[in-house]
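pinging the channel bc i need a second pair of eyes. not urgent but kinda urgent?? the chain im working w is below, pasted from the shared doc
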Amino acid sequence: MFHDTHMHKWHSAARPHEVTGTWANAAGQTANTIVRKKTANAETSVVTIPIELPQNDGPEKDAYLVSLDLYYELISAAATTVTPVIYKVTLPVTGAAVGAPESLAFSYDASHDTANERNTQDQHAMTLTLTTPVWIEDDHVIQVAVSFVCGGVVVVDWIGLRANYTYRL
């Protein structure tokens, strides 16, 4: 049996789905980097990232999601709030609706475990560690939604997300 506990999958800035706000592909604050940039407006914007990892319908095989590293930058001012949520969605069978997303419990890294630390004007590498890691079964979809509540002068650069998992076959 193959069992690797140090697997990672990068989800680039080009991957998210945004709700509210004006977002565009742009150059990052550092030369030769790309981001999804939200222009400054007083609004709540949500970035949702689908997590694409290997799936298997066998018990305890393929990806065992352990944590997620979120990379973003708040430029020009602090946000009012930055709130991530990890969802597990169960895909429907024929003739049924998609099940209600289940929020998965997690803890923050020590540099982001208070709201003020997540909201500061700065570059952020925030780790969300699942309280109970999950096997990604063939009928599940994992998504991360990050809400940015911003005043009129806050620019958000979404850099990307890294999923950290165990891979077992």
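so The helical segments are 115-119. and The longest strand covers residues 62-75. — does that match what u expected or am i reading it wrong
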